[in-house]
Amino acid sequence: MEHRGLRPDGTIAREGSPARVPAVFTPVVDAARSLITATFGATRLHSAYLYGSVPRGTAVAGVSDLDMLLALRRLPTDADRADAQTVEAELDRAFPQIDGAAIGLACATDLLSERERYDGGFFVACLCTPLTGPDLAEHLPRYRPTSLLARETNGDLASLLPPWRLRAARAATEHDRRALGRSVGRRLVRTGFTLVMPRWGGWTSDLNRSAGVFGHYYPERAGQMRLAVDVGRGSADASALRVLLDDLGPWLAAEYTAVHGEKAARP
Question: What mean pLDDT is reported for the chain?
Fold first, then answer.
């Protein structure tokens, strides 16, 4: 039977674990844990998590980045963001295994709030792997691949398109286009997958599989979604980026709203 990322009870399984971290990335993860703990301390840090290809076991040395989330005991400040950037830079300098480190910051209380239950809460409970500190997932529900989950995780695509287009217009170098393209491509693939997720009845974060599942339901857009995978993996093709921003993106935002509705407003 096809594996669809679910537990036996039909809820979405946590997709990563420390045991899946490839051996080549173990020193990076250990250093990240030590740096984060030393930099933020118990007074600021509630818990830290890995997410992405490293804890899923699919990372490629020299190509993949190290993605982390820090759940702080208060709302993140400019000082917190500066410290996170320092940790990112130190890890990037020290370990050629990674193509950069990225640290996201959130407030632990917010992640457990009713407002974030099907967005930030889902992210922690199902897509994040504990790195240090008490696991917030213990206070969160089990999630199913529902329309509610689809709306609250990716129902804000329309609001992202204008700033993306502005960044594209200002992108002067291949590096700028590549950085923007990674964000745009990956988000469009995730949004395309969650558009059809309730019909498919499962969960995946794999870009190729996500695009394939989407293409089964929208074959006329399958080629563009495969293009989004390529751009999300680092293609700096300016014409491909325009297709995503001017054609696939607007269509996907409209279709998403029609099927699942708009994401609840955030302050």
Answer: 95
For 16-38, what is each residue's pLDDT tens digit? 999 999 999 999 999 999 999 99
* CA distance linking residue 197 with residue 5, whole number of Å: 11
Q: With respect to CATH, is domain 18-139 assigned 3.30.460.10?
A: yes
